[in-house]
Amino acid sequence: GDKAQDLPASGLSYPFAILRGDRTTSGVIRSALNIDHDTESLILAGDVPLGCQVCLMHADTDALVQGAAQAAAEALRTHAGPEENGCAIVVSCVGRRVILGIDVDDEIEAVMDSFLPETPIAGYYSYGEICSYVGTGKTELHNQTMTITYITEKSGD
After folding, report:
1. 82, pLDDT greater than 60
2. What is the structure's pLDDT at 33?
3. H or E segment to which residue 76 belongs
4. Those residues with Cβ within 8 angstroms of residue 57's Cβ, 6 or more apart along the chain or in another chain
5. Predicted structure pTM score
């Protein structure tokens, strides 16, 4: 339709969920970059394995902010406790920033609120994030995702 003329920017609002295997576990998100009119196909930012299920999504700013808070909570849960002092490295997709617009501060605040006030936090925007699936350890390229690495020092006791 008319939104195709505005790719890749308009593709950020309509990402694809790529589900594999049993299709009940979360997959990866792929952003539409362009259209190949000769082959009548979409060009996505990353692989789409043969046999997977592809679901068209619509970006929701509240869900993006909530997802950022969940990512911070998961980083703490799996690598430390909220009482442990450490530092966080936050990598968010520039696509999320575009979608959130003026609400991008809400996403950053949601992450900051998950950590102790004195926790050093550094971050940047990228054009794709490389991280593992929660619980699987399998690493893959993600689009429109926020990744958080939480680093603590183990006590010598």
Report:
1. no
2. 84
3. helix 61-79
4. 14, 15, 16, 17, 29
5. 0.78
